[in-house]
């Protein structure tokens, strides 16, 4: 008697069933409908993430400016051009004619940046730069230091060598996307640093 060795194989006479053309069209229709419904939400999500990233980049540049001012022992300035939607950081011209470590950033074309200061009456005042003005000096009187800046016509956050923030620095910088969502980079009440907020109210403003 002969015995068969090796694994036994059974042959299925029924071939695998393929999708019909009608089924493929139905699946594609469902996928298209789902993508169409989700697209606006996804676009809004990614725009929100872009706004959040820009605010974090601005805050990181502020902290970098404070760090450079302390480590290099000279004032730094973070300037904001609201018309060109740009901002940057460099050493103050009073101490250095050119800064090889200067940084410059441009916002996405769908975003806007604005700078707000609060007057003594706690009233918000938007600051807009005028690109036609030349660099100038700040400070009057023999006891006041003369500050020379290449961006004197623009709002500037000034970082002093001890890490503190200059008294004339803007208190609030706002970033707004095309949907009107705004994130605020605001000066803390103790004037030590800046922080990101979704809004600012009377409680968030600086103490008089």
Describe the structure.
This protein is an alpha+beta fold and 208 residues long. It has one domain (21-197): 3-Layer(bab) Sandwich (minor pseudopilin epsh fold), CATH 3.55.40. The chain has one helix spanning 21-72, and strands spanning 76-81, 86-91, 103-106, 112-118, 124-127, 136-138, 147-149, 156-159, 172-176, 182-187, 194-197. A five-stranded antiparallel beta sheet has the order 5-4-9-10-11, covered by helices on one side. It is elongated, with a radius of gyration of 29 Å.
Give the tags.
alpha+beta, minor pseudopilin epsh fold
In short:
It contains 1 helix and 11 strands. The protein has 208 residues and is of the alpha+beta class. The strands form 3 sheets. Strands 5-4-9-10-11 form a 5-stranded antiparallel β-sheet, covered by helices on one side. A 4-stranded antiparallel β-sheet has the order 3-2-1-8, with helices on one face. Strands 6-7 form a two-stranded antiparallel sheet.
